[in-house]
């Protein structure tokens, strides 16, 4: 039986907030009868919804919002009554077990770090994501929290992402790799060479370097890199997938004969698109904090919001921060 959990959700986060967030919460509540929500945002956006779900949704009205174009750290310190800051404060105070937002990634990271705090011994939190793949899900970390890193940071990213793969993806022994320009141990920058040595020495499940062509082929369950490289790799993968599906659609609808052929393979294409869809992922966890913080994509639809809330609830139930803390100690 699932444990009862409370997730704080930012109603103002996302390109189509608040309605898409409310729709996503509806789906999440239907899927998980042991889930409760504390909704943060403008009173006029959340109070009526909370009243309709009074046994499972609480409204925590806020008066400020942090936009995508604002400087994250400055905005978090200045706008203490924003939906993001209040959501993280609820986790700090123990009123919620975790926080989900599809708002500004930078603001969410800054607020989570300031209010939840880092686990003792963690040098830097890492933002991880599950890359949808037709072969098997792959965790990529870091994807933007740390542009400049040290070898020991990458080692910790690998430890934390490996735990996430084990407890959330249920991979018994995650195969961990380091993103590099070649498979050889001596390839890459000085950072990569030193990180390779640390991982080889300290990670039992380290399987070596990962080239860019191997990220999605199923050889590795976890791929580790710095936040700058990881963000570029993630967006390159997302952009390529979107372009290919767009081009494929144009090719298959160009003539009547092609449309007929497309009707035959349409079910298979739908399955492939689902396997590659970011909607199924829901959000990216910020690993290394004392609380659970999951950050969704700004363009998230209701299904993605629902899945992001579900991931947050799973992290709370598994006590992912506690497991990471024990492993680091």
Distance between the termini: 30 Å
Could you say what the CATH topology of the largest domain is called?
Isopropylmalate Dehydrogenase
How many alpha or pi helices?
A: 11
N-to-C SSE series? EHEHEHHEHEEHEHEEHHEEHH
Number of strands: 11
How large is the radius of gyration? 20 Å
Q: Indicate the proportion of strand residues.
A: 15-25%
Q: Percent range for helical residues?
A: 40-55%
Q: How many structural domains can be distinguished in the coordinates?
A: 2
Mean pLDDT: 91
- CATH C-level category of the largest domain: Alpha Beta
Strand order of the largest sheet: 3-2-1-4-11-10-5-6-9-7-8
Major sheet attributes: 11 strands, mixed
The protein's oligomeric status is single chain
What would you note in describing this structure?
The mean pLDDT is 91. An 11-stranded mixed sheet has the order 3-2-1-4-11-10-5-6-9-7-8, with helices on both faces. It has 11 helices and 11 strands. It is of the alpha/beta class and 329 residues long. Strand 2, helix 2 and strand 3 form a beta-alpha-beta unit.
What can be said about this structure in brief?
With 329 residues, the chain is α/β, with parallel strands linked by helices. 47% of the residues lie in helices and 16% in strands.
């Amino acid at each position: 039986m699932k444990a009862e959990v409370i997730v704080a959700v930012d109603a103002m986060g996302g390109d189509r907030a608040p309605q898409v967030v409310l729709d996503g919460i509806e789906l999440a509540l239907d899927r998980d009868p042991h889930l409760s929500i504390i909704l943060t945002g403008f009173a006029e956006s959340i109070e009526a919804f909370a009243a309709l779900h009074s046994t499972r949704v609480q409204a925590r009205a806020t008066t400020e919002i942090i936009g995508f174009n604002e400087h994250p750290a400055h905005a978090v310190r200045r706008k203490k009554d924003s939906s993001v800051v209040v959501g993280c404060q609820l986790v700090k105070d123990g009123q919620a077990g975790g926080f989900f937002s599809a708002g500004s990634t930078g603001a969410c990271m800054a607020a989570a770090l300031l209010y939840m705090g880092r686990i003792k011994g963690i040098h830097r939190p890492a933002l991880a994501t599950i890359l949808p793949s037709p072969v098997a899900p792959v965790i990529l970390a870091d994807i933007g929290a740390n542009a400049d890193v040290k070898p020991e940071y990458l080692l910790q990213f690998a430890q934390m992402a490996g735990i996430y793969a084990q407890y959330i993806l249920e991979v018994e022994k995650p195969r961990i790799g380091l993103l590099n320009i070649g498979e050889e141990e001596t390839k890459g920058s000085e950072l990569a060479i030193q990180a390779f040595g640390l991982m080889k020495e300290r990670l039992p499940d380290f399987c070596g370097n990962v080239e860019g062509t191997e990220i999605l082929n199923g050889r590795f369950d976890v791929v580790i890199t710095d936040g700058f490289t990881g963000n570029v790799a993630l967006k390159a993968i997302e952009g390529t997938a979107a372009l290919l599906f767009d081009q494929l659609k144009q090719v298959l609808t160009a003539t009547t004969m092609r449309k007929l052929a497309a009707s035959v393979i349409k079910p298979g294409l739908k399955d492939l698109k689902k396997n590659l869809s970011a909607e199924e992922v829901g959000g990216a966890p910020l690993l290394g904090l004392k609380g659970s913080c999951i950050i969704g994509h700004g363009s998230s639809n209701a299904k993605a919001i629902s899945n992001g809330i579900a991931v947050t609830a799973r992290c709370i139930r598994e006590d992912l921060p506690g497991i990471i803390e024990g492993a680091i100690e």
